[in-house]
Amino acid sequence: MVHNQTKQAVVAGFSPGSELNWNTMAGAQPFGPGLDLFKYVVFGDANWDFKTLNWDTHIDQTLKASTSMDALDSNLKPYFDRGGKIISYHGWADPQISPGSTSSYYDSVIKTMGGASKVQENFRLFMVPGMNHCCGGLGTDQFDMLTALENWVEKKQAPASIPASRVANGQTVRTRPLCPYPQTATYKGSGSTDDAANFTCK
To answer: Dihedral sign, CA of 148, 154, 155, 158?
Structure first.
């Protein structure tokens, strides 16, 4: 969604592949946490009617009211200077929080910090194709980010990729590498497309 005056993106849209779950955000009733944000933070009115929302007149009021809750500061220098490490991940098929918001934030950190080379030794983002909100969907949503983070912090082993799998009916049916954004898992051209060994991060 774009700001009508500045033409800048306010909220990134959802990605192709998430359509079957849009009822969370586009159902007959608004998404509960979003409705509460408007009622209690933006308008301070528990009886506020969502049908009265006017994008043109209320967007700036909403942005101002939610500023104190937004974790969007892209200057991570103090954290990086202390040796802090961040592994972030997001499913491309998330129907609740736009995956574009996460990739946009990561891009803003790169811009603020002076380029990818200044960021990749402390912060890596892994986008998960086909994964819904935190898990689920048709993607490879089974992975271990904690061990990857521990290895990075304790053994200085930055994650070049993270193994992931899709489990259906108790059986692993697909494996793929999760690649640090903006890289993607690219098929080598031969072998099963359900086997991570046949993919490389590019």
So the answer is: positive
Tokens at residue 169, please? Answer: 């009916």
**Residues 129, 195 within the same domain:** yes
β-partners of residue 180 are 126
pTM value is: 0.89
| Contact partners, residue 178, CB within 8 Å, separation at least 6 | 89, 126, 127, 128, 140, 143, 161, 162, 163, 164, 185
For residue range 3-12, list pLDDT tens digits in order: 677 767 777 8
Q: Are residues 99 and 181 in the same domain?
A: yes
Q: How far apart are CA 162 and CA 164, in angstroms?
A: 6
**Rounded distance between C-alpha atoms, residue 88 and residue 125, angstroms:** 5
Model pLDDT for residues 146-168, shown as the tens digit of each residue: 999 999 999 999 999 999 999 99
> Looking at the structure, do residues 181 and 130 belong to the same domain, yes or no?
yes
